[in-house]
Amino acid sequence: MKPEAEHSASLPVAAISILALVLGWWGLALLNGDPTVLPSPWRVFPLAASELASGELLRHLGVTLRRVALAFVIAMAVGVAIGLLMGRSRATDRWLDPWLIVFLNLPALVTIVLCYLWIGLNEVAAVTAVAINKIPTVVVTIREGTRALERQLDDVASVFRMSRWARFRHIVLPQLGPYLASAGRSGVSLIWKIVLVVEFLGRSDGIGFKIHLYFQLFDVGMVLAYALSFVVVMLAIEGLLLRPWEARATRWRRA
Amino acid sequence: MISVALDNKNIGNTPVLGRVAFDVAKGETLAVVGPSGVGKTTLLRVLAGLDTDFDGRVEVAARRTMVFQEPALLPWRSAIQNLTLVAGVSEDAARTALSEVGLLDLADRFPGQLSLGQQRRLSLARAFSAAPDVLLMDEPFVSLDTSLVGEMLDLTERLLASRAIATVFVTHAMIEAERLATRIVRLVGNPATLEDIAR
């Protein structure tokens, strides 16, 4: 069976599994009996709908998505550049590896707080903090991919005098494809979680800010409404953007 | 086209090639034979400009291409793109080169969809499509069965005959050397040097 066919065949299963999750949640809410602690799905969905209708949800969603996108682009660009450098040059790898280990083990909270303290309570600090958290994991993945590059194809490129750009575009990038896809997918899921923390701690808009607000009001229903809306959007981005791109980039493998 | 006066070539601290001197003119094909591990591929890498760490003088025309031991194609690009993107030739030139090796109908296939023999022919087409002054071939028929080797030899002979290329062809099979070469030398010893083989 072709992967696309497999993918579409798994859709009904995924739908049933999600439905089971919602029903389980409903069951727990019934058992608990206190809607201020755990409101049922039928209370949370209308809340999300009314926030959507009022425009509040979209405004904060937009702000958060912009931060996610900016941090993602910066983290991928910087991470890929450093990863390529470390994968290609042993000397660079030896020098930068200890730094990499330090940054990999730096708690997200520490980077966020330090960025706010040093840069100020602003957008630059927020996006920088998120990017710094993500860059080291991109570097690790891309370094791995660079080390696995086929040497013979480098020779081919040299003998045929391919330009630097052509080499990167047609020889390096296709080989890094699976590594980029994996760094990208894990990147998006890590980044949006950190963005919410950044907003929680020091921004006056975005999903994280709204969750902070309703946390202070002990409004579990609204916390869930905002959190779930955002999860849905992120799942849609993964399914509609990342997966199709990955399928296209690896088409030659299935041909 | 090719003028070589190598004093020595080491890999690490191990001397691989000693004094090696030869010239190859336009239209000539020099076959280098010798046991495996003697340094034939090293010599070819020096000629290709892939290895520049040697003592001596090596002059090779700038327009050079190479046929590698393995087909060394880009599996993620179609057959025709393997010519246009790697050899940097126009689509028309690529089609001409493909038809010369009988692969025109398969231009849009990925290399993984071609048989090993077809991949070798594509690799050959790539090297010839760039209209090189110098062609380097590193055991291009290794691991093919006998009938396929014969077919490849015919094809290569035909392609070379219609052009004026200076070719250096490395092989361990004397039969292949005798078919294609205008001159045969043997690489022997440690560090290796050349000895002429009378024809």
Structure description:
The complex is a heterodimer of chains A (255) and B (199). Chain A has 255 residues and is mainly α. Chain A is built from eleven helices and no strands. In chain B, the strands form two sheets. Chain B has a six-stranded mixed β-sheet, sandwiched between helices. In chain B, strands 1, 2, 3 and 5 form a four-stranded antiparallel β-sheet that branches. Chain B is α/β, with parallel strands linked by helices and 199 residues long. In chain B, helix 4 runs parallel beside helix 5. The interface between A and B is medium-sized, with 18 and 25 residues.
Summarize the structure.
The complex is a heterodimer of chains A (255) and B (199). Chain A is mainly alpha-helical. Chain A has helices spanning 3-32, 41-54, 56-88, 90-104, 108-119, 123-147, 151-159, 164-202, 207-216, 220-249, 251-254.
Figure out the total of helices of chain A: 11
Mean pLDDT score of chain B: 89
Q: Give the biggest beta sheet of chain A.
A: none
- Contiguous low-pLDDT stretches of chain A (5 residues minimum) are 1-5
Label the overall shape of chain A.
globular
Beta-strand share of residues of chain A: under 5%
Strand arrangement within the widest β-sheet of chain B reads: 6-7-8-4-9-10
Give the rounded overall mean pLDDT of chain A. Answer: 88
Largest interface, C-beta closer than 8 angstroms, per-chain residues: A-B, 18 and 25 residues
The helix fraction of chain A, in percent, is over 70%
Given the C-alpha coordinates, what overall shape of chain B results? globular
- Determine Rg of chain A (CA atoms, Å): 22 Å
Topology:
The complex is a heterodimer of chains A (255) and B (199).
Chain A: H1 3-32, H2 41-54, H3 56-88, H4 90-104, H5 108-119, H6 123-147, H7 151-159, H8 164-202, H9 207-216, H10 220-249, H11 251-254
Helix pairs in contact in A: 2-10, 3-4, 3-6, 3-8, 3-9, 4-6, 5-6, 5-8, 6-8, 8-9, 8-10, 9-10
Chain B: E1 2-11, E2 14-17, E3 20-24, E4 29-33, H1 40-48, E5 55-60, E6 64-67, H2 79-84, H3 91-100, H4 116-129, E7 134-138, H5 146-161, E8 166-170, H6 174-180, E9 183-188, E10 193-197
Parallel strand pairs in B: 4-8, 4-9, 6-7, 7-8
Antiparallel strand pairs in B: 1-2, 1-3, 1-5, 9-10
Helix pairs in contact in B: 3-4, 4-5
